[in-house]
Amino acid sequence: GAGVSQSPSNKVTEKGKDVELRCDPISGHTALYWYRQSLGQGLEFLIYFQGNSAPDKSGLPSDRFSAERTGGSVSTLTIQRTQQEDSAVYLCASSFSILNTEAFFGQGTRLTVV
Amino acid sequence: KQEVTQIPAALSVPEGENLVLNCSFTDSAIYNLQWFRQDPGKGLTSLLLIQSSQREQTSGRLNASLDKSSGRSTLYIAASQPGDSATYLCAVNNNAGNMLTFGGGTRLMVKP
Q1: pLDDT > 90? residue A97
Q2: Which of residues 38-57 of B touch A (CB under 8 A)?
């Protein structure tokens, strides 16, 4: 596609429910990144993929968070048993490779846990 | 651990003024530095990417400089317009995975 696409744009969920956030990277981009932007916290790195492999999962805040990427394209970020502190904007980015290239971001998914 | 700081946190200027946004980082071993713009409720739009070997990059009214040894970058906006009002984020890439460490942003308001 023309840009990084994320869905849904907004998600309201009840505490304790699981949610799935989707990211469609720019076609041909092998690297994909998930970031979280919390009010007052700034942007923090969560996880990245090179192809379908996630070499660094150290940024995931807890074991309730997981992510996968299939076919070297679409990625899903799953949050199990959501908590109110998970409320944030989840941003996905892609780049041509993991080597020193420009990152392009999607519009984000605003998650609200009530 | 890399830390990125942006000063000022907020800035309000009259239309037409030239302005400078500052970004500093603690670990100078970077691959590149990227400036982004974020409008309220939106994602990030890439403005300029400066490789570690470069000193500056220009795009239209924007000019970004990089002084890697001192851990500083500036974003210069010439002849500011109300449409420039947004939050400007600086991000540093200093690892092989191309992950970015972000500053807290500068919230810019340009008044007509």
Answers
A1: no
A2: 41-46, 49, 51
> Which residues of B fall within a CB distance of 8 Å from A56?
97, 99
**Amino acid B83: pLDDT:** 97
Per the DSSP assignment, residues forming a β-bridge with A56 are A48
Supply the pLDDT for residue A40: 72
CB A75, CB A69: distance < 8 Å: yes
User: pLDDT digits over B60-76, tens only?
Assistant: 999 999 999 999 999 99
User: What separation in angstroms does the CA of B53 have from each of A13, A69, A100, B33?
Assistant: 46, 33, 12, 11
**Nearest CB to A107; choose among B31, B43, B101:** B43
Q: How confident is the model at residue A1 (pLDDT cuts 50, 70, 90)?
A: low
Check: CB of residue A105 under 8 Å from CB of residue A25. no
* Neighbour tally for B24: CB within 10 Å: 18
* CA closest to B98 among chain A residues: A98
B102 close contact with A: CB closer than 8 A: yes
- CA–CA separation, A54 vs A97, rounded Å? 14
Return the pLDDT at A45.
92
Cβ atoms of residues A69 and A52 within 8 Å: yes
Q: In this complex, which of A45, A99, A106 lies closest to B99 when CB atoms are compared?
A: A45
* Structural element, H or E, at residue A69: strand A65-69
A89, A109 Cβ separation under 8 angstroms: yes
What is the tens place of the pLDDT at every residue in B12-28? 999 999 999 999 999 99
Farthest CA pair distance, chain B: 43
